[in-house]
Amino acid sequence: MIKGHGGNVQALAKMHNCSIDEIIDMSSNINPLGPPEGLEEFIAANIHLIRSLPQPDAADITLAFSRYYNIPLNRVAAGNGTTWFIYTLPQAIQSKKVVIVGPTYSDYRDGCIMNCVDFEFCMSDAQNMFQPDINKISDMAKNADTVIICNPNNPTGTLIPKDSIIELLKAHPSTYFVIDESYLPFLINADKISLISEPSFSNLIVISSMSKIFRIPGLRTGYLSAAPDVVEKLMKYYQPWSVNALSQAATSYILKSPEIIRPFLDMTRLFVQTEKKVFQDALGGCSNSINVCNGLKLYPGSTYFLLAEITGSMTSQQVCKMVGEHKILIRDCANFDGLSNHFVRFSLKDRETNLKLAEILTKLLSE
């Protein structure tokens, strides 16, 4: 397992001898407005569910996913976050050679390593604003049975157009394409971009998490949509009771409450786009293209988190440590394959917090 996932607030709190509540976590990509109204109260009122075993196959939330997205039930699986799918799919679909479009989330690589599957990266680079090269992906897919794409990507925020992914699916019908859409719900036009309800391709596997958009990472819940034979292969590795009782209850609450959830999604999408622009402006006006802003080069992405390159002599570890002195945790991206120790990532919060970080960074990197 990689050392250095985002969200290690415990370590920073221990370092500063303070409570976890005093740490501002801008390293984990979770919704600054979540959880949705009423969800925590619902969980508290249903705490008694921990006294009994949950459904062993998470049947009710699988059905809820199916109905919410209008997907046939035999094309859906619910899991313990996307992590379970990432680590189980290589074994279930018997991957032999995997292409990972990077730089990206390390668990895709670690899932291959755990299952002794050969893999290689199709890396994008800073010169091209980390936008993936579709032709390069297609060339590498010729010699692979599985391609993994995070879309939008973590940590770069880049988005591959839906039409481009469909072209890949058509060009390589015998190659599985695993598309992780965990960050897609933050985009204003998410419903038009998503492939979750795309029924036409037997080689398409879509996974997504409820952790990020609904700010419930501790509950661990996610879902997969794929052809029935893929779902059937996956379920052979399904562990009974892998989705806990509170997670199942909270997921059902969310998916069966469109009158709450749809306005929440709309509000979130508008909020993060607005605050992203405010934060970029506070750093010196980097809003639409790559510009150096007070010692940082911000990369334009579609998401609410931002990848930044430190242009001076300081390393990402030094910057993270000095920002941490203000009890703010940001993501050191040095352990992402394809990035160096000059990259950091910010996951935006409320305006006051975002402006505070911009002020700290401006002072720190201009000294």
List keywords for this structure.
single chain; 14 helices; 5-stranded antiparallel β-sheet; 16% strand; 7-stranded mixed β-sheet; Aspartate Aminotransferase, domain 1; 367 residues; Aspartate Aminotransferase, domain 2; alpha/beta; 38% helix
Determine Rg (CA atoms, Å): 20 Å
- The pLDDT mean sits at 91
Shape: globular
Main sheet?
A: 7 strands, mixed
Might you state the CATH topology name of the largest domain?
A: Aspartate Aminotransferase, domain 2
Indicate the structural class. Answer: alpha/beta
Q: State the low-pLDDT regions, or none.
A: none
N-to-C SSE series? HEHHEHEHEHEHEHEHEHHHEEEHEEEH
Helix content: 25-40%
Strand content: 15-25%
Counting structural domains, the number is 2
CATH superfamily of the largest domain: Type I PLP-dependent aspartate aminotransferase-like (Major domain)
DSSP summary: helix tally: 14
Account of the 3D structure:
The two termini are 36 Å apart. Helices cover 38% and strands 16% of the residues. With 367 residues, it is α/β, with parallel strands linked by helices. The strands form 3 sheets. It has a 7-stranded mixed sheet with strand order 2-8-7-6-5-3-4, with helices on both faces. Strands 9-10-11-14-13 form a 5-stranded antiparallel sheet, covered by helices on one side. β3, α5 and β4 (118-123) form a beta-alpha-beta unit. It has 14 helices and 14 strands. α4 (81-92) packs across α5. The radius of gyration is 20 Å and the shape is globular. The chain has 2 domains: 9-30 and 261-366, Aspartate Aminotransferase, domain 1; 52-256, Type I PLP-dependent aspartate aminotransferase-like (Major domain) (Aspartate Aminotransferase, domain 2), CATH 3.40.640. The model has no long low-confidence stretch (mean pLDDT 91).
